[in-house]
Amino acid sequence: MTENNTPECKYHQAEDTALSTPDSPLDVLSSIIKPQTGKEYILPALICLITLVHFFAFSQWDSFWINIIRLSLSILTISYIINIAHKAYNKRLDIIKSFNNNQPQFFTTIVVFGGMLAIFIPMIMNITKLIDNSALLTTALLTITGGIIAIFGYYITHQKSELEKEQMNMQKQKDARDHIRQLHDSYNDRFDKAVAELNSNDVKSAYAAVPKLAKLADAWLDYKDLSDDKKELKKLKKKAKKEAQTIINILCKYIRTMPGEYTEEDLKNIGALNSADQDKLKNESEVRRLIFSEISDRSSTVIIKEDEISIIPGTWSNFDFDFSRAPIFYPLNNLTIEKGNFSSAKFYSNADFSGVTFTQTADFSWVTFTQNVRFSGATFAQNADFSWTKFAQNADFKRATFAQNADFKRATFTQNADFYEAAFTQTADFSGMTFDQKANFNGATFDQNADFNGAIFTQNADFSRAIFTQNADFSWATFTQNADFAGATFVQKRSFKDAFFKNCAPTFMNEILGAWFSVHTVQEDYIFSVSSGSKPIPPGEAELDGIERQIPVGAALFDLDSGRISEPAKPIEESDNQGETPSK
Question: What are the start-end ranges of the H helices in 354-499?
């Protein structure tokens, strides 16, 4: 037997298959209306029975019993409808599935079924004398059926609209992804060209490449308007951070690289080179200074107000910067340096960090400054690490601000070290440090512990007018020449245990100023027991408000709360231990 494969037959076969599938509209409707158990036959059977009773008794019984029959019939009908609605609710998933899979058949079934009900229900009710005029009921049923069809029509329209919207969104997302892909491809092209220019032998090209790379990093970070999808934005953020860090790494690597064919000896004495080489290095220094300038423009902003430091992050604040082991032969003054990792770097010619703000930790550990270095007016918003650093010539830290810990442990100053009126907000660690020339801490402020344990001062050490708010530790320190503490203020414990004053006893008083020691510190915290062979600290005695303390001759006691100051301490052998001394 030959199988009929004509399009018309295929259409009818597909239609028959749709009607016979478990989720076809007829099956679903039948499963809702058709009673499934014996109990479910009771209600429709009672409705039919009472309808027949009403038909035969209508002309014989009086209106009271007829109304009772109609009321009973109404109650049973409502109960039956509620039961049907309950079954429909339980099969709502089947209804939705049937509707989604067989929308044309579903609508056809509703129209046919609704039309049949609109015809047969009024006719049956008219025959059984339940109503006199079936036209109104027919109209009502047709209206209900039409309403149902209209509702489903609205649903179809809404579903179509949602589908179109979803398709539009998918197309929009595709267009956005294509745009992002094209944008990133253009970024990669710009990156390749800028890196090639930076590493070329043409200084002008390298100078032009620096801002190109910096702006390219900014472009990567400007990703938030590229997508509305949270997952996509998360991916873009991760990629943007990676690409921007790559650009920063390339700029930092350029800083760490020796310039061209030049050697350390060339950088140590640039003035001895011919004019052409000097010009090349000058141009090279401008390229490298520009890199720091571009970084500075994107770093945090530090605001100092009423001795409080607040930091507003910049666009590059969360990235890493590595200048370790870099050869630096150019000034870096008046910049903002986010993360100053200069560990083991070497500075040729004069190093200038005057007016620089270090917003995060500044690491100058193991650094070599071959010539003069200036940090005057610099601000260290976080820790400053100068441990094991070598200052070959003068080091200028005048009026520098150290907001957190300052670590100069084992550093070496072979020339003058000038910390005039520097401010140390947190711990200042100069333990084991060597000052080969003058060490100037005149007017410096130490808000936390000042540790000069084991420090070596080969020339004059000036601590006049310095303020030590917390502990001041000069234990085992060596002072070869003058040590001037005139006008210094000691609020807490101070220790000169085993300190060694080689040529001169320390000075705690001059013609104008005398050192001050807090009267509230117990005598045991005044430690002036220098090492054997050292020039002694001249012992004296002073009294304030009935409290006596042994302090260096010429120094005075003071009360921080009342502002009262004692007379200068007299040598112990001359002290007459008389009454209260007048206050100033």
Answer: none
Mean pLDDT of the chain: 86
d(CA 200, CA 209): 10
Are the C-beta atoms of residues 463 and 435 closer than 8 Å to each other? no
Q: Where are the alpha helices (DSSP H) in 91-202?
A: 92-101, 103-127, 134-198
* CB atoms near residue 258 (< 10 Å): 12
The pLDDT value recorded for residue 310 is 86
Beta-carbon contacts of 193 under 8 Å, excluding residues fewer than 6 positions away, are 212
Rounded Cα gap, residues 467 and 492, in angstroms:
11
- What's the predicted TM-score (pTM) here? 0.71
List b or e across 284-306, with b for residues whose CB sees 16 or more CB atoms inside 10 angstroms: bbebbbbbbbbbbebbbebeeee
Amino acid at 248: I
Task: Give the closest residue to 544 by CA, choosing from 575, 574, 579.
Answer: 579
Q: For residue 579, what pLDDT is reported?
A: 36
The pLDDT-based confidence of 577 (bands split at 50, 70, 90) is very low
Per the structure block, which two tokens stand in for 40?
A: 């479910």
d(CA 114, CA 121): 10
Per DSSP bridges, beta strands 401-402 and 445-446 are unpaired
Inter-residue contact 315 to 299 (CB < 8 Å): no
Extract the tokens encoding 232.
């996509």
DSSP of 334-384, one letter per residue? S-EESSEE-TT-EE-S-EE-TT-EE-S-EE-TT-EE-S-EE-TT-EESS-E
pLDDT above 50 for 178: yes
The answer to whether the beta carbons of residues 521 and 499 sit under 8 Å apart is no
Question: What confidence tens digit (pLDDT) does each residue in 340-371 have?
Answer: 999 999 999 999 999 999 999 999 999 999 99
